[in-house]
Each structure stands twice: as structure tokens, then as C-alpha cells.
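thought: fold this chain, then report.
action: predict
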Amino acid sequence: MLIQAMTIEECWAMLARNNIARLACARDNQPYIVPLRVDLDGQFLYGYTTLGRKIEWMRTNPLVCLECEEVSTDRVWASLIVFGRYEELPHIPENVDARRVADRLFQRHIMWWEPATVPLDGHERQPPIVFRIHIDSLTGRRTIYEPGLREREGHPPESQRPHWLTRVWRRLRSDGGYSSAVSAPGRMARRASRPA
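observation:
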């Protein structure tokens, strides 16, 4: 397996494919992370939620980070980090165009208002908040996994590698641990058999 930096084009393409991310924000030196649905349009990620910790914290500190990944196996994956700034989009004339974009993006999803507007058990329903994250920068990493790559690098195939017990046995023999481990019980047995 090799790990490579993704090109900026690959990063944008991956961000466009994914609409579930982990949003990280911070306040008073305390980080907070939460999964969130987002939709990409231009330099912005649009989101929909209700008032809670993440909104309170982003109002205080608008600098945020988002992470998303695509994982096929433990050897085949890609991970993307986005750095940006939170911007709330209340119902005011200056936000009409931005909210129109958000509405268009949200409508692509069935029941797009869930889970954001579903109240926590025992709590009252909160009014929705539309926001966007201005993307300042993004970076990504991905693996390149080719079956047989380890063999080409000089490692034996999995089927020809020694079993774990064989590896332990060889290690004990090579560092002298074998002889002391074998002889110690014998000495103890002879001492135990001597008359008092």
C-alpha cells in the first residue's frame, strides 16, 4: 500500500461526491465534532440544522474544519480535510440568493429536513437554521493498493510467510532466549528432586 497526496482536482471531485462530513469547531480551547449533511456549490458547503452546541460555538468562533472519507477496505481509502469559515444565512434580503442556492441543493435529497429538525426526545421543535461554510482550503490523502506490490518490494507472499509461532521460535533461538528458557525448568526440577 502507498499513500499519496490527492491533487486539488481530486479533492474537489471527492467533496462533490460526498454529502456526509464530520464538522469540527472549537470554543475556549475545547474541540467539538459532529456528523453533518452538507452540499457543495462553488466555494461553499451548505447545511441545515437547528440551534445547538455547534451553532452556538460557530457563532463564537467561525473557523471550522470538515472531514469526509471514502473507505472500501482498510487498504483502499481516501480522506479529505476542508478548512473554512461559518456563515449563517438568516431570512434577510442580503441572503435571498444564497438561500435560493441552499434550497435547490437540499431539494435533491428525500426528506432533506431530517434529521436536523427532528427534536430530541422530550424537547420542543427548534426553528431551522440555514448556513454555509466558505471553503478556504482543502487537502486529501488516498491509498494506492496493488495486489502483489509487497512481493515486488521483496516481501514474501502472505502464503509463504512463517506462522506467528514460527517467528517467535526463531526469535527465541537467535537471541539465546531458547536455551535459557529450556534449561531453567530443568534446573528447577533437579533442585526440587534433591532430598532436604
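thought: worth noting. Residues 178-193 have pLDDT under 50 and may be disordered.
final: C-alpha cells above.
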